[in-house]
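User: Can you fold this complex?
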Amino acid sequence: MKSDTFPEAKTMKSDTFPEAKTMKHVAFLDVKNLEVIYTQNKRTVRAVNHVSFQLDRGQTLGLVGETGAGKTTIAKACMGILPTPPARILNGEIWLDAENILEIPKEKMLRIRGKKIAMVFQDPMTALNPLQTIGEQILEVIELHNAVSRHEGLKRAGQMLELVGIPAARHVEYPHQFSGGMKQRVVIAMALACDPELLLADEPTTALDVTIQAQVLELIKGLREKLNTAMILITHDLGVVAEICDKVAVIYAGQIIESGSKEDIFDRPAHPYTIGLFQSLPRLTAAEKWLKPIEGMPPDPTDLPDGCSFHPRCPYASKECALAEPDCIEIGTGHFCRCTKWMEVRTCQMHP
Amino acid sequence: MSDAPLMEVRNLKKFFKVPSGMNHAVDGVSFTIGKGETLGVVGESGCGKSTLGRCVIRLQEPTDGHICLNGKDITHVRGKELKRVREQVQIVFQDPYSSLNPRHRIASTITEPLKRSGRFDNKSQLQEEAKRLMALVGIDQRLQQSYPHELDGGRRQRVCIARALALNPDFIVCDEPVSALDVSIQASVLNLLMKLQEDMGMAYLFVTHDLSVVRHISDHICVMYLGQLVEKSPTEELFMRTLHPYTKALLSAIPSVDIHKPMQQIRLRGEITSPINPKPGCRFASRCPYAMEKCQEPQRLEEIEPNHFVSCCRVREI
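Assistant: Here's the predicted assembly.
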């Protein structure tokens, strides 16, 4: 089949993500062609390769992918906290509200970070200072960004704790006095203390039990409605993505290999990797005895395969896949896929 | 379960002394596991499920209760006898990063139990055995002389499984073996565990907080809440007919990958009862939407349906 049978399918060059051209208005967060490498012992790890995406206020983007796919690196780049060295941003722009984060001087960035952009880190056990009470730690963010007295600041810290379901009176306690779920909520309270416009949440619920996870997700949803916060949610839990994201980007070997609305990705996945991810999940409803893992291992980021980085594991791969990096194709409105064989894949999915 | 169960646990208790009293980590748990069966244990973190797993294989000394393996009481065995028990029961830990000795090569990690047991003393035999075990769990032979840090999480967990299999045990405790792994790797490790069970017929006690994993792999499921079993039932029955209010809340909280079925979550309110010196009544009562006065009295597991046990005095009314 040729792509002209599908009028909406158009091919773009791989290094410019096409969404930027099709949309007229300026997105709140616009990441363009981001490329990040880590150098260590003279080896180069290509962590993020030509990643572009956009996000509006009030929207939530889910970044999905395996460990080491580059999800956290993307978030840290947006926050301007990539450790350089070993990291180096080779290329790209990150526009937040018409300002390129990568060009903002350090001192000014200090005022933006924590206020305009906030991040919830993955591991609440290590994100908190064990020697400071949680009230002090939340207060620190508030005092840094607002001209408030200590008293007012503490009051605000107490309010934030109440917001995440922890009694304000407990602000005098130390992190070890809280359970894992509560610590995670403290970290969230801290991130939200200055009403950020962009929230980066790196696996905010991975360390939590399902019942607590449900509470945290509820909380995040509520805040989004109240404050119209734009959010990037990094996770490998597709259930969580289904629950709160509007848009999804699937990352493999530092590249967005498929992106689109939640419905696009969950109902009409087109990339063989995305399909493989869904098939490998044990489902509460499925009756099959054997799970279907994706064959093979994620590629070595210091030595990415030629052509499509997924082709060594891909059941649909052919010779051409190893030759050229596939372009990003718009296969439906706002639904992008980096696979030349998406039509064949889809046909196979419909008529197995 | 045809004949005598492989493992029978009766009224198992494990209390920890803490400054403010006794932490009732496991409080009166009973269950049986038949040969080649899988019993899933689910619950929130801190509910005592890992402690339970460690107690039944005598990694921790139970405070009270009985553990019978193959009809023999192993609760208090010591010395040589305990060593023999250890050959029959093994464990796979949650974190494949910290449960392998970073300074031991893969082959030597896998054959360590064999050396300890004294079953093999000759080097070439050990090497053969290491090869066999690595093939069994699907690790490349070329990795024999690698160190754990050279492997990814999935392969490390396979090494842990190979080590647990080395002595051909009857019973393996799997303490969250896949929760540190990515979904696609998780799927292959789960497949491996089920394949091995099919071929070798050992029983698993599968401890996890992931309900979709537990449903996939278990024959029976125990739901734990603060050290006590609140519901025990065959897997399908539990999901078809959930009876205990806690299990209901737990199941409703799982985010589904089906985006067209919004989550109908039962919100739990109230404080979690402290497991330190708990009162005699139902421990879930403080968060339970159906709690009444009579919930303050001690609860016991009742067989509501055949083989379906629930510990809730109001289960028939709800």
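The interface with chain B takes residues 66-67, 179-180, 209-214, 217-218, 236-240, 242-243, 262-263, 266-267, 276-278, 280-284, 286, 289-294, 297 of chain A (CB under 8 Å). The two ends of chain A are 18 Å apart (CA to CA).
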